[in-house]
């Protein structure tokens, strides 16, 4: 396999200093949970009763087993450039597929509505402590089922129905939860959209300040599904303070870059930070909320009991595993490689004639216009899919009128970086993309040859 970039899988996280959970109780044999876990770690064959058993699934339900095998092959045989996806570690997958998924745990550690939560309480305490340490936050809520649930809880904690909220408009890169009429946010709140400069594609902070002064929102949301540049959280906080608004940073996309030190952190500036634990952070599908001590109770109550029921304790444990991985130097190297790869890919695509929004990227995200090649984005995505290159389309910044806005391609480099690809491979990826857009018949086999050199799970026999 070619020289690879650092992966958390190449380094065992040292969780000893981070796991500040209280000493667990002794079991009937007089050993603590930690002692049992250490003993199990010495015995390579031991695993919890009910741990995933693919052979059992294959015997019992070959139809669904076939789906798992098919998806696994699809992920390994194509070039995965969807900006929101990644290959999470076998350790995260083990926690996700664990018997913790059987446990009901409404409430919070030490204050649950169900019995028998003393063990899963440990998982949540550990996850919370690791998240706080990783992001330097006073409080963390690790129960949000998804990024959307995290945003919903932030609104529930800070807003009343009908309140005015400023967020990036959807055609310029806002998420559905930032005021789409098809989403609870657009129905329950009065969203006012700010946009990017149509020429440069960059946020215009003076224009956002003017809009905030005029509309006096209760909250300002910063964060995007496609903005490829770092956000100026200090500027957003300044605007929020001037206009008496809460600042909510929805950093679903760059949360992993923030953890790895490859993007600035909103934690010192935002009243509430929402994120996803998948995407660049490379954990399980799920949400995370960070805030200061003052808002901690409001946020926790907004998650449970206001917007959610029982926490998914298998996902909470998997988040804890991902936070420990993200605290390692290897993860920092990965995060920086993700951005280096995105820069290299953006440059190479521009060299082949695509227009890159904002002229480049600071993050894992690239948005590109295929119009200079005479192709609309939908046709382009179809040709790429036929070549085994998987990515999304997204709206490109445009004037609100005339509609419709143009769409472009949205690419991300997190998954390919996890696979071990570096800047040299990004040049090959750009060549493959352009060959696929030109409907070169040989490109599918060239894509397979490239990705097979970088298996997402190299230890899989
Ligand atoms: C900025 C932003 N917020 C929220 C979400 C929602 O996350 P989820 O799909 O986990 O609900 C996303 C997902 O892509 C996002 O990019």
From TrEMBL:
Q: What is the first-listed, main subcellular location in coarse terms?
A: cytoplasm
Q: What is this protein called?
A: Serine hydroxymethyltransferase
Residues under site feature: Plays an important role in substrate specificity:
278
Catalysis performed (reactions): (6R)-5,10-methylene-5,6,7,8-tetrahydrofolate + glycine + H2O = (6S)-5,6,7,8-tetrahydrofolate + L-serine
Q: Where is the composition biased (Low complexity)?
A: 19-32
Instruction: Please verify whether the record's keywords include Cytoplasm.
Output: yes
- Annotated region (Disordered), positions in chain: 1-49
Instruction: List cofactor names only.
Output: pyridoxal 5'-phosphate
Q: Which organism is it from?
A: Streptomyces nigrescens
Q: Does the keyword Transport apply?
A: no
Keywords from the UniProt entry: Amino-acid biosynthesis, Cytoplasm, Methyltransferase, One-carbon metabolism, Pyridoxal phosphate, Transferase
Biological process terms from the Gene Ontology for this record are: glycine biosynthetic process from serine; methylation; tetrahydrofolate interconversion
């Amino acid at each position: 396999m070619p020289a690879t970039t650092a992966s958390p899988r190449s380094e065992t996280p040292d969780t000893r200093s981070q796991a500040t959970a209280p000493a667990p109780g002794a079991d009937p044999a007089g050993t603590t949970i930690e002692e049992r876990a250490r003993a199990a770690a010495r015995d390579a064959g031991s695993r919890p009763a009910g741990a995933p058993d693919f052979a059992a699934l294959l015997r019992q339900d070959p139809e669904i087993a076939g789906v798992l095998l098919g998806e696994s092959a699809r992920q390994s045989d194509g070039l995965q450039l969807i900006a929101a996806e990644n290959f999470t570690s076998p350790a995260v997958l083990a926690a996700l597929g664990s018997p913790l998924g059987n446990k009901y745990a409404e409430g919070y550690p030490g204050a649950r509505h169900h019995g028998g939560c003393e063990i899963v309480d440990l998982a949540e305490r550990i996850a919370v402590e690791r998240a706080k340490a990783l992001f330097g936050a006073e409080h963390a809520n690790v129960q949000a089922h998804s990024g959307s649930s995290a945003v919903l809880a932030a609104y529930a904690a800070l807003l009343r129905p009908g309140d005015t909220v400023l967020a990036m408009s959807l055609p310029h890169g806002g998420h559905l939860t930032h005021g789409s009429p098809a989403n609870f946010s657009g129905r329950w709140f009065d969203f006012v959209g700010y946009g990017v400069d149509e020429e440069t594609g960059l946020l215009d902070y003076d224009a956002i300040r003017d809009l905030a002064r005029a509309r006096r929102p209760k909250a300002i949301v910063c964060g995007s599904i496609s903005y490829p540049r770092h956000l100026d959280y200090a500027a957003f906080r300044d605007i929020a303070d001037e206009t008496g608004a809460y600042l909510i940073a929805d950093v679903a996309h760059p949360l992993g870059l923030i953890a790895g030190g490859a993007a600035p952190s909103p934690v010192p500036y935002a009243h509430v930070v929402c994120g996803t634990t998948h995407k660049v952070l490379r954990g399980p599908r799920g949400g995370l909320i960070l805030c200061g001590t003052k808002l901690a109770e409001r946020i926790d109550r907004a998650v449970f009991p206001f917007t959610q029921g029982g926490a998914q304790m298998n996902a909470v444990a998997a988040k804890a595993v991902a936070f420990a991985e993200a605290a390692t130097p290897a993860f920092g190297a990965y995060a920086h490689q993700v951005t280096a790869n995105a820069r290299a890919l953006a440059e190479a695509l521009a060299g082949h004639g695509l227009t890159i929004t904002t002229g480049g990227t600071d993050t894992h995200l690239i948005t590109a216009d295929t119009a200079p090649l005479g192709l609309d984005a939908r046709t382009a995505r179809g040709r790429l899919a036929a070549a085994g290159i998987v990515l999304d389309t997204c709206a490109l910044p445009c004037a609100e009128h005339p509609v419709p806005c143009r769409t472009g391609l949205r690419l991300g480099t997190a998954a390919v970086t996890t696979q071990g690809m570096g800047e040299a491979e990004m040049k090959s990826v750009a060549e493959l993309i352009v060959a696929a857009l030109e409907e070169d018949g040989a490109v599918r086999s060239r894509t397979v040859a490239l990705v097979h050199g970088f298996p997402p799970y190299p230890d899989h026999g």
